[in-house]
Amino acid sequence: MDPEPLPEAKRERLPVTEAVRPEWAGIDLMATLDLVRLMNSEDRSVPEAVAGQLEQIAAAVDAVVTRMTRGGRLVYAGAGTAGRIGVLDASECPPTFNTAPGQVVGLLAGGPQALVSAVEGAEDRPELALADLEELKLTPDDTVVGISASGRTPYAVAAVRHARTTGALTLGLACTRGSDLVAAAALGIEVEVGPEVLAGSTRLKAGTAQKLVLNLLSTAVMVRLGKTYGNLMVDLRAGNEKLRDRAERIVAQATGADEKTVRRALTATDGRAKDAVLVVLADVDAPTAARLLAASDGRLREALALSTRKA
């Protein structure tokens, strides 16, 4: 028997992420290929929904960069799938962009245990968000991004509200419009992807949308901070065999130098690819490369220009 529709008054209170599409009530009766085709078809709408928020995402990137240039941090706060996606993005910044410890932070309602198992009720406790953020001792140069598919998760909303009282920049990322989360934040990104094929399972389209937005946000922020050279991850520091191979490829691609020159530069710079590129292109020693990068806030193009002026 198909599920009965909700009463009209109850349905109006539900965010779109919790809505039930009657035409999908029989997915458990579908052939497997038809089921995955339906899900894949719905997934195609997600990039289009994200594209509708690119101006807001770009504005957020520029605002975050302004603060991180002054030493601020980027902090994600969420519960369940949304919080795990924030933690994932934060954890990928050090190996990709050589960010400093604590420069990008992921807060998850319920703590590390909630990464691998549900911590019942954690998302409904705003006091947990306050405790997590108070431990960080926020400053006006920090940015707190509350992430919630419905836009009404108490943990995420409380995180943004508290962060705003400290003067930190606040951003609300929701998958519905007119949410409490976005209303509480200084900047809002509303990626409305519509009901899920499996009603209320926001690890699907909503989770994909959140991952895409955070990919855009953190990557664009790091590009603007000079963590790349063109589209190369030059802030990589080689600490194992795989990373040493990658560092060699990056330096070779950036400089056009032969293998022997690349390896010599990486050895001199203790495996720091950005420094090694500067050693080769500016024809300087490793200490000089380090000084040029420090004077250029780590931006390789500016360090190269500075080396030319000093030559």
Write a compact overview of the structure shown.
52% of the residues lie in helices and 8% in strands. The chain is built from 14 helices and five strands.
Features:
disordered N terminus, five-stranded parallel sheet, alpha/beta
Overview of the molecule:
The chain is α/β, with parallel strands linked by helices and 311 residues long. The protein is 52% helix and 8% strand. The protein contains 14 helices and five strands. It has helices at 8-13, 32-43, 45-51, 54-69, 80-97, 126-136, 154-165, 180-184, 205-224, 241-255, 259-268, 273-282, 286-295, 300-310, and strands at residues 74-78, 104-108, 143-148, 169-174, 187-190. Strands 2-1-3-4-5 form a five-stranded parallel beta sheet, sandwiched between helices. Helix 5 (80-97) links the parallel strand 1 (74-78) and strand 2 (104-108). Helix 5 runs parallel beside helix 9 (205-224) and helix 12 (273-282) crosses helix 13 (286-295). The chain starts with 7 loop residues before the first helix and ends with a helix.
The shape is globular
Structural class: alpha/beta
How much helix, percentage-wise, in residues?
40-55%
Beta-strand percentage? 5-15%
Mean pLDDT: 93
- Residue runs with pLDDT of under 50 for 5 or more positions: 1-11
Tally of helical runs: 14
User: What's the helix-strand series?
Assistant: HHHHEHEHEHEHEHHHHHH
